[in-house]
Q: What sequence folds into this?
């Protein structure tokens, strides 16, 4: 299942928020780190200058550092200062105790400290990370290279704590932002929800109605409502055109047919004598064909009206088996003629009342039963079965009409309800090929369902499902 | 064989009835006018509502056959104008829009009967006669009818040919009575569907049923007897008549 737009929007918004926040956190972190390193370097430069004054060559020719330096620690960091002094040849003259004998960086770089101060990063052999300043200083006429550095360990520890702090603040702020975003999008979508609810109520019958344009009207939502309204307008117009077209077709086709038929009939009425027997036969054939054409046009117009407008239904409550009986009785002579037997089976007790348009449904049943009669071999039986079923959780009354005819080929079970469909096995006779399409329309307009049973082997088994009348069935009336 | 003369014979005793036909299809009008035999009817034809109105004043008709779909002002408008002017002449509406709503609108506007196009000529003639009978106020009391040696008693529900009583189902009897009522006129399948089967919907496959029912009726009515009464008129329908 796809997420709702509102959820998707909130997720996306939150994602962007997290990314922006991450970039911000990284920038703050890096800036702070660079600042602190700069401070350390400055302190190193200052101290190097202080150290310059404290260095002296002792009587033993060794380089020393005045001890009083230690008694004036300016800060904790200063105590941790790492000091190394080399002569111009690169020999080590002095190394502070805090280095524990480790070398501070590379043995000396070419021209190191020749300029002003130089800064370098180094890693001691014990793993400590160090930032040190190098400076060349003349002492007693000979140049010495002073290297003074600080262990970066405490800085890194501070930065780690700082980053924890930053990251800890992230989840609550993201949650907060997501919540706010979700609420905000609800407010933003409320007018859309209203529009959707309104649009849902617009059907073929009230196509003249329009969506309300949410204030201020010239924003995106207003435009959207406007566009939907324009669409409805075009739809409305095309429906009206379609209706007019149907009426025009009815007129334009039936009027010449009326002339055709009247002329043919008049000819037969005035001159049916033996002399013109051939002519009469020709005219009769033409009349029969015009009758077929009329039937087809009537059927098409009925279907087209049903397509274009919800034809006014007359929903009534009636007994379905009774209607089936009535229809079977109407076809009684055909049944007798072909020695067909209709046996009726009722699977469950209880009410067989359905709610539908009785006239339309009678047409539907007549078409289905007539079809069964047409394809039944002489002397066979037509099985009618009534059952109570549930479809999509709704109680339905089902009637299945089953013949022992040739049946239909696989894959034709939905196609036989199409207009003018010609089956491969039940090659249609003189019937107009609209009977089952009309039956389908009639059943569906009453809120029912019609289908050919694919699981059935042998003849055709056609089932009609109709909404049960009663308290638990949705009612069209309001008190 | 030429039945038009024989059909007109009964009407000769009464005066010719004048019928105004209004439709914008000239060809259809002429055909219908020819089919309404001069011995029984005289006809005037009009192609528009205006023409019809002036013809109405020239000679008031006994019946108007009026098409709804006229070019300028519709047939329904003309009908409303007539009825508001106090004209009570029976009106048979013709229309190509055979929807139930149109039928209701037509009858509400004051029409006496309604026929959808394309109609069958025998039905149009039968309805014209029925409307004129109704307007004349002498609906014939159908106590007993005879066609040749066939006698029908609708009250007792008995049909006999000569001395032999026919064993008919109620549907067969109703069919026979309806055919007899047409006095030798041709009856189309549509008329039978409407009047004997009382089928209002035009989309029910009844033609097979009617043909089979007619065949079964013929077996009982004609086969045991030397003369045939029930005839099939190909292309038109059926007729109950003693042949000359």
A:
């Amino acid at each position: 299942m796809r997420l709702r737009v509102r959820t998707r929007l909130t997720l996306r918004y939150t994602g962007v928020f997290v990314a922006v926040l991450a970039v911000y956190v990284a920038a703050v972190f890096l800036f702070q780190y660079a600042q602190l390193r700069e401070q350390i370097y400055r302190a190193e430069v200052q101290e190097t200058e202080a150290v310059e004054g404290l260095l002296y060559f002792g009587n033993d020719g060794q380089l020393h550092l005045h001890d009083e330096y230690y008694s004036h620690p300016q800060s904790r960091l200063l105590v941790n200062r790492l000091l190394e002094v080399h002569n111009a040849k690169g020999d080590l003259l002095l190394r502070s105790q805090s280095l524990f004998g480790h070398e501070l960086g590379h043995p000396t770089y070419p021209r190191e400290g020749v300029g002003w101060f130089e800064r370098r990063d180094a890693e001691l052999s014990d793993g400590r990370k160090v930032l040190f300043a190098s400076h060349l200083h003349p002492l007693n006429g000979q140049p010495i290279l002073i290297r003074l550095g600080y262990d970066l360990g405490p800085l890194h520890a501070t930065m780690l704590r700082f980053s924890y702090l930053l990251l800890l603040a992230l989840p609550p702020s993201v949650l907060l932002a997501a919540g706010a975003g979700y609420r905000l999008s609800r407010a933003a979508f409320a007018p859309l929800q209203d529009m959707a609810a309104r649009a849902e109520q617009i059907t073929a019958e009230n196509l003249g109605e329009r969506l309300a344009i949410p204030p201020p009207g010239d924003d995106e939502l207003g435009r959207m409502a406007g566009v939907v309204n324009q669409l409805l307008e075009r739809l409305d117009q095309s429906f009206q055109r379609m209706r007019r077209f149907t009426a025009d077709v009815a007129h334009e086709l039936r009027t010449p047919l009326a002339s055709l038929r009247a002329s043919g009939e008049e000819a037969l009425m005035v001159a049916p004598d033996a002399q013109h027997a051939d002519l009469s036969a020709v005219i009769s054939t033409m009349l029969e064909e015009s009758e077929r054409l009329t039937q087809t046009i009537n059927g098409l117009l009925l279907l087209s009206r049903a397509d274009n407008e919800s034809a006014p239904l007359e929903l009534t409550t009636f007994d379905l088996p009774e209607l089936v009986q009535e229809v079977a009785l109407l076809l009684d002579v055909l049944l007798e003629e072909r020695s067909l037997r209709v046996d009726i089976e009722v699977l469950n007790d209880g009410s067989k009342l359905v709610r539908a348009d009785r006239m339309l449904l009678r047409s539907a049943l007549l078409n289905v039963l007539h079809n069964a009669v047409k394809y039944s071999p002489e002397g066979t039986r037509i099985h009618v079965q009534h059952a109570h079923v549930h479809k999509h959780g709704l109680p339905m009354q089902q009637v299945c009409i089953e013949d022992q005819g040739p049946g239909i080929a696989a894959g034709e079970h939905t196609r036989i309800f199409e207009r003018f469909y010609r089956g491969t096995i039940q090659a249609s006779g003189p019937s107009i090929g609209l009977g089952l399409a009309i039956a389908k329309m009639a059943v569906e307009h009453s809120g029912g369902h019609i289908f050919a049973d694919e699981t059935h082997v042998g003849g055709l088994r056609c089932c009609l499902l109709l909404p049960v009348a009663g308290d638990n069935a949705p009612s069209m009336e309001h008190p | 064989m030429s039945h038009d003369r024989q059909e007109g014979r009964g009407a000769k005793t009464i005066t010719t009835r004048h019928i105004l036909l209004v439709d914008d299809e000239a060809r259809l009008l002429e055909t219908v006018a020819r089919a309404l035999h001069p011995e029984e009817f005289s006809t005037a034809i009009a192609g528009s509502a205006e023409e019809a109105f002036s013809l109405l004043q020239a000679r008031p008709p006994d019946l108007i056959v009026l098409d709804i779909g006229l070019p300028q002002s519709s047939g329904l408008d003309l009908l409303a104008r007539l009825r508001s002017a106090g004209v009570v002449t029976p009106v048979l509406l013709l229309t190509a829009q055979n929807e139930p709503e149109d039928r209701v609108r037509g009858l509400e506007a004051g029409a006496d009967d309604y026929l959808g196009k394309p109609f069958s000529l025998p039905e149009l003639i039968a309805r014209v006669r029925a409307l004129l009978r109704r307007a004349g106020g002498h609906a014939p009391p159908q106590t007993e009818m005879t066609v040749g040696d066939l006698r029908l008693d609708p009250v007792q529900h008995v049909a006999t040919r000569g001395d032999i009583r026919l064993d008919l189902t109620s549907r067969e009897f109703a069919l026979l009575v309806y055919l007899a009522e047409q006095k030798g006129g041709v009856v189309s399948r549509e008329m039978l569907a409407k009047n004997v089967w009382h089928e209002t919907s035009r989309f029910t496959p009844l033609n097979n049923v009617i043909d089979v029912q007619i065949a079964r009726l013929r077996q009982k009515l004609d086969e045991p007897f030397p003369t045939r009464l029930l005839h099939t008129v190909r292309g038109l329908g059926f007729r109950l008549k003693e042949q000359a």
